[in-house]
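Final report, Chapter 2: Outcomes

The project's central promise was a pipeline that accepts a single protein chain and returns its three-dimensional structure in a standardized token representation, suitable for archiving and comparison. That pipeline is now operational. To close this chapter, we reproduce one record exactly as it appears in the project archive, with the input sequence first and the structure output second.
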Amino acid sequence: MGGGEAACPEENPAKPNLFQGHARDFTLTSVDNKHLSLGLPENAYQQLTDNREWGWSIFAWSVKVPYNRDHKTETVTVSMDASAAKRVILVDKFGQDARREFPGKVHDEAELKADVAQDEAYFAGFTPPVRDQFGGLSDSGTKLGLKKTGFFHVEKKAAAGRDQWVMVDPDGNAFFHLGICGFGPSDDYTYVEGRTDIYDWLPPHTGDFASAWNPDKYWSTRAISFYKANVVRKFGAAFDDAANAGRMVDRVRKVGFNSIGAFSGNSPVFVEKGVPRVGFLPLGKAQLGEVPGLRGVFDPFDEKAQAKMDELFAKSVASASGDPLLIGYFLANEQGFEDLPRAVPALNGKHACKRRLVELLKGKYPDIAAFNTAWGMTAASFEALADQGLPLTTKAAFEDMQAYTALFLDTYYRTITETFRRYDKNHMLIGNRWQPGTANSEILCRTAGQYMDVISINYYASGIDAAFIRRLYGWTGGKPQMWSEFYFTSEKESTVKGGGHDLATQHERGLAYRYYVETAASLGFVVGIEWFTLIDQAVTGRFFENYNGERNNTGLFSVDDRPYKPMLAEMATAHAAIYDVWLNGKAPYVFDDPRFAAKAGKANRTVSAGHATGPMAIDGQLDGWPGRPPERIGGDRLAIGRESEGLEAAFKVCWDEENLYLLANITDATPMMNAQTADKLWGADGLELFIGGEKLDQSGPLLFTDRQILIGGGKSGQFYVANVAAQPAIRTAVVPAVDGKGYTIEAAIPWSALAVTPKAGTELLFDLAVDNSNDGHGRTCQLMWNGGARNSSDRSAWGRLTLVP
């Protein structure tokens, strides 16, 4: 343009406008020297702005062309030139971000080799408390009167002045499960096919470095572990899975971890080292199939699936039934049970679960006419129901599906448990690793509680919502819990990105861990946790998601096999104190960070929106949604009203190039009450979404481009966008919960309505309110994810949303 060539400044410049003036050309040059050029009409006025001035990490270009009534046609030319393109390295030969420095970054192989002796000295410096051979509290069995069965089990005992659930190890001592998910190379593999030029170096497929490539035949030329390559450099030999696993077991035991968590396989080294581990039952889609629309759940009414389960258990379960190191079995991971009432009625008669639904309906109604009246249908016969979709539009239909859901879940859990106990009478069944939104179902909790020994929840949280957790505990009939997946990140002090619970330093990661784990232990019914993961995810994303993989600072160790020492120090402190907190009533650690206070308006929360994985049907279901954990809005986030009245929500956000998507599961004793319209929708059941795309650090009144979007909970299609000239087209779906105790809202909001051009890395101001009414005409209370009652007029307390790949 007229200002000549200049590089985009790396730091925030003194003046935000990099160019203002008339110019007829504009050329943008990428990091690899490819050029996008535009030829503009005469008298075009251009402005190039660095929006970091307002806390938004983008550069904005705008052009204005004066209108000439005598010359109504203007021409804009667009051209691209890659003839002088050059290779630009984004990832160095150690698998680190080549563009920036951070604490602990490796610069040459000599540093890696020197780490060998330094690591030995570092871990030798830990003096973990004395524990029994399984990692349990020595001599606690006698004190608490625990049984020694030779296997892990749970007992309820009096401790710390209350009834206390205790996990007991094979020696008969109290054992708080301190596990690590993904123990070993897993999420550190990254997909390189089609983008090899961005890497400074990729290991050869021969010699010692061949061991750094994924061992699976399909992935062996496509996915590389820089972690493995760095271990090859560090120790001067091909990567040895057994040697590395043994070394890692020794290291984490020094810090106080005592077991191997999910997604870790069953290495013979775990047995050799005598370290306890968890297992998974073979119930996945590949083994037993999956009910369409019901993620991760097989058809429990399918006799072939039942026979296959028996066959699989006879092999895998029976052979391990006498293993004292096996803590128990997870059934699955993050299934979509919340979609069950809507998924099954949509199926055809080839599915046993749909046939069983028809059988239930036929048994309830005396004839097809009675059914048609109840369901608002015109079916010719009960037999005709099998191969047609059954719309849930009446109260009777929802009541019937509530009964069917209970039948489905009871059949699911009973079939698994009975089959399991035929081959293993020694080990525990430790649940399905629910996401909180899934767990927030009384029918599901009560049914699982009848069959499971332990309930597992993948509970990602900053401030722990004890009221929510205690309610789940009550619904399950008082079954002990395991919080089976969580992590905290520090993007600034690692080579990878931060997640939804990002902290400034590795030391703060450790403090957050202390708060989380000690608070869990203090509740009296949590018997263990599992940190996710041992090693950081790859800087270019984990391999099985190709170019859209998670790339977070989840590890205890970096890609260079370097421990995050400030974090591990705090973890060791938590582990040393855990039994005093769990059994003796010691107060848990309190993290002095407002995000961990769990009080409305007191936090500075962030949430990440992953890219949609496919087409998004706005129907209240999870198809197309990335597998990211939801955020919760608990009753403790009360912003308006005397009490929360049982209101709460779990929500997810994702995006594609056209829309921002929101899905919220709302718990409400009087659901879908909203007789309001337009700008009064906030006065009854529904959501209020707050979005701001510029000047993120500016407090005070809303800016012109800020948006408050009201989404009514009474029926699909209710919405209103405040402060816009014309209402945009927003697709919404409002779907009642089958048990009558809540509803789901899903919405697709065009980016054009938000004045935002989306791309990965974009950060926005964001908040979400849940409004409640008991009659549809007047609001009784409001919950707010981050801010408070003034959100509609003051953006100061809104949280943050980041768009991630």
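Archive annotation: The longest helix spans residues 395-423.
This record, like all others produced under the grant, will remain available to the consortium after the project formally closes.
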